[in-house]
Specification:
By secondary structure, the protein is α/β, with parallel strands linked by helices. It has 14 helices and five strands. The chain has a five-stranded mixed sheet with strand order 1-3-2-4-5, sandwiched between helices. Helix 7 runs parallel beside helix 9, helix 9 crosses helix 13 and helix 10 packs antiparallel against helix 11. It is elongated and about 90 Å long. The two termini are 48 Å apart.
């Protein structure tokens, strides 16, 4: 499928849709999410404000190298949280009293205040992912995150119902807002695969950051793409059925028929064809039937009923 006849593509080759998430992913321009404070201002900026919403206090100093690493990451995470928390920064060289009262002995140190009291915290220049988890734990999901999750769920329902065009539009919009969102990338790639554009589906997965490519959903879709490539080379399923009926030892025909059954969505039958080969000849094609069955399990997912049923049969066959 080219960009000209791909129903998901806009003129520039990218999908588009009028889907928004919260207030465009950032707090309103007037929202004072990040500020510096003093010993005198601590009561109003932290204690009083934390009775309205959680406040993170970043204790730092100009000479602290890890502080310089943490500050921009922390500020970015707070902005992305869309108002779930506020950030107050305190220079302990200029204002040491509060840090001393809290027993802070090393920096950077981030303490979360909730309802006027310290509730949780961490020390050191931790990774951004841990900061985001901390903010979610303290402040709960932001309006943007909630809207994003609702959009993903809506698109997943459309995908499940077979409405690949509308599902793809939503997934594409999600990726425009959060380019490394694995759920949206896999959803969009699945829409493309189901619509016959396997190559574009591969491009979507390839665009994910390296640390996202090992996700179970990504591996499962890659397995589906590999199976789709195999099916292209198989041939006429009616002829394969005839060959199997004519010669029960035509294992290649039965193996190919299993691929067709999987492509048709007849997963239990696909598994049964491969299991039949294993019962007759475990050594055929270097144990190829078992290896192919394991690939199907990965493509279907560990909780799929077809996987669960076939695993029971496989276990009985191997260990009986």
């Amino acid at each position: 499928m080219t960009s000209q006849n791909n129903p998901y593509s806009s003129a520039g080759g990218q999908m588009s849709a009028n889907v928004t998430f919260g207030a465009s992913g950032a707090a309103p321009a007037g929202a004072d999410l990040i500020k510096d404070t003093t010993t005198a201002g601590f009561q109003a900026d932290v204690i009083a404000e934390s009775r309205k919403q959680p406040v993170l206090v970043d204790f730092w100093a100009p000479w602290c190298g890890p502080c310089k690493q943490l500050t921009p990451v922390l500020e970015n995470a707070v902005r992305q949280a869309g108002g779930a928390v506020k950030l107050v920064k305190m220079n302990i060289d200029d204002h040491p009293a509060i840090a001393g009262q809290l027993g802070i002995q090393s920096i950077p140190a981030v303490i979360a205040f909730v309802n006027g009291q310290p509730a949780d915290g961490f020390m050191g220049a931790v990774p951004e992912s841990q900061i985001k988890e901390f903010i979610t734990r303290i402040g709960g999901p932001s309006d943007q995150e909630t809207a994003l999750n609702e959009a993903i769920n809506a698109a997943a329902e459309l995908l499940e119902s077979g409405d690949f065009v509308q599902a793809a539009k939503i997934f594409s919009s999600i990726l425009q807002a959060t380019p490394d969102n694995v759920d949206a990338a896999v959803g969009l790639a699945t829409c493309l695969l189901e619509s016959g554009d396997a190559e574009k589906a591969r491009e979507i997965l390839a665009s994910l950051p390296a640390d996202k490519k090992d996700a179970a959903s990504v591996r499962a879709l890659e397995a589906k793409l590999a199976l789709a490539d195999q099916v292209k080379l198989i041939g006429d399923p009616i002829e394969l059925e005839r060959r199997v009926q004519a010669d029960g030892k035509d294992y290649q025909a039965r193996f190919d028929l299993a691929q067709v059954r999987n492509a048709q969505g007849r997963r239990e039958e696909a598994a049964d064809e491969l299991l039949a080969i294993m019962r007759a000849d475990r050594t055929w094609n270097d144990d190829g039937a078992r290896k192919q069955l394991l690939q199907l399990f990965e493509a279907w997912g560990n909780t799929d009923p077809a996987t669960l049923g076939a695993r029971r049969k496989l276990s009985s066959l191997l260990f009986s």
